[in-house]
Amino acid sequence: MRTVCANFYQYAGEVPDKVAVIEASGASVTYGDLYRVANRISHALRGEGLQVGDKVALLSSNTADFLALLLGAEQVGIKVVPVNYHLTASEIAYIIDSSSSKLLFVEERHLSAARRALSTTALPLDRCITLGYPTSAGRMFADFIDRRSEAPPPERVHGSVMLYTSGTTGRPKGVHWPAHKVDPETAAQSIDPMMALRGMEHDLDAVSIITGPLYHGAPLGWGLQALHHGHTVVLMEKWDSRSFLQKVQHYGVTTAQMAPIHFHRLLQLSIAERRRYDTGSLKVVSHSGAATPIPTKRRMLEWLGPVLFEYYASSEGYGTSITSADWLEHPGSVGRADGNGAHMKILDDLHNPLPAGEVGTLWIQNPGGLTSEYFGDPDKTAAARLGTYFTTGDMAYIDQDGWLFIVDRRTDMILSGGVNIYPAEIEDVMRVHAAIDDIAVLGLPDDEWGQRVHAVVVPSSTVEAGDALAREILSATAHSLAKFKIPKSLEFRESLPYSPTGKLLRRVLRDELTH
Question: How far apart are CA 515 and CA 513, in angstroms?
Fold first, then answer.
């Protein structure tokens, strides 16, 4: 059943008994209950003295409370900073301090890592609030919102999330959007036209499944917008191909948010096994996060039909999108250069425009010229801006008909399973090992993950290079980096290629290793 244009807050009033969220456990929350919890969160945040523009960090897996916190903060102008729960304590601490978060909300299962992180941050332990079951110490979420009003807060104003993204140099950066004095309803509905291009409609019968972690921008954005469009949101805690297909069949899932790695995993199932599940309810499969190999996408279209809606975007701004029909006419494209109201151009290293079909750096102007900034880092902000245009360093070309093709997602960035991995961060950690004279980390093609992390090491002259040394180096690295950042492979070389100006030539290495 389709409805007129609305948003979560209005749907909660119109259909309070409709199921809003189904967690991985099967537990469900209605629109009315989620709305009341969100309102209590809004009042509690203000009760803690937080103001418009302040930030709170959130360390949690996919739960209804995660979405309630987003909705509660969103309507009082407070920015939520989602934190990847796979990070180490030191990496979590960096984001808490870098973002100047005033509170940390943490799911009970991640409390140990959170406490280790807080021991090295400026945020006091009593500013940590635990989501989940009561613990022997610390503040509980139930107590935080206890006795708070369930009515909407006064003077409601929209607040966006602040996602942390990795660039080609430096540590992860918080993407900060300027505050706009608009109410949450107006903010939610302002991107309806763009969401429609990605397949999302206002529909009370729709069921959206979130297959990735909500700390990542694409699943988070789709989950929130699904609620603003009246959908029931089904949360997966972790990916499993059979579990996904079972949930699609059981709940009659109509829309899914996925990444190319999910396609790869699904296609690893035999045709006979895939046919065991009814996927006929699927009307929209939205995907992004990495380039989808053309053969993989063709196989998915042959299986599910023309339901794939691909889009290209980043934490820093908008992008473009493409339907199944348009993709079949322009295989490999991610959409038109003016597809979602943004304006795109391809420039060379001296910022000169390049002709159609020629590869260069992609620069994007958001609709209306709206720009974000890297929080607390004006130099990096300036380096990625050209007037009202921004770049993430992606290499691309626009063909003569205006279709955009991404050639290389962030020259140095590794995209593994749809997750950004920053090579220099890994190099900085590994370089302190006494056995390493020099190191380069890069992504190599991987059929399953898209890319895998690979390290090229120049060993010290005092050690013997070999398997034993490689194991020792990787074992030491595991103490300082999240598991997904640790190189999956390592090789030794006598030297690394550098330019005359001393710049490491990763592309030379990549070409040598892939050809």
Answer: 6
Architecture of domain 339-367+380-411: Roll (2.30)
Residues of the chain with CATH 3.30.300.30: 414-514
The pLDDT, as a whole number, for residue 503 is: 60
The residue assigned the tokens 């979560």 is 8
Q: What CATH superfamily is the domain 414-514? A: ANL, C-terminal domain (3.30.300.30)
The amino acid that residue 413 corresponds to is: M
pLDDT for residue 501 is more than 50? no
Closest to 172 measured CA to CA, from 450, 482, 503: 482
CA 361 → CA 246, 288, 350, 389, 506, distances in Å?
A: 42, 20, 10, 12, 17
Partners of residue 122 on adjacent β-strands: none
Apex 313 CA angle, 308 and 317, nearest 5: 150
Q: Are 353 and 386 in contact (CB under 8 A)?
A: no
Tokens 């709206």 — which residue? Answer: 370
Nearest to 513 by CA among 472, 453, 465, 463: 453
Tell me the Ramachandran region of residue 72: left when phi exceeds 0, alpha when psi lies from -120 to 50, beta otherwise.
alpha
Three-state SS across 83-101? Answer: CCCCCCHHHHHHHHHHHCC
Relative to beta strand 284-287, strand 436-446 is unpaired
Classify the C-alpha dihedral 176-321-301-450 as positive or negative.
Answer: negative
pLDDT at 476: 92
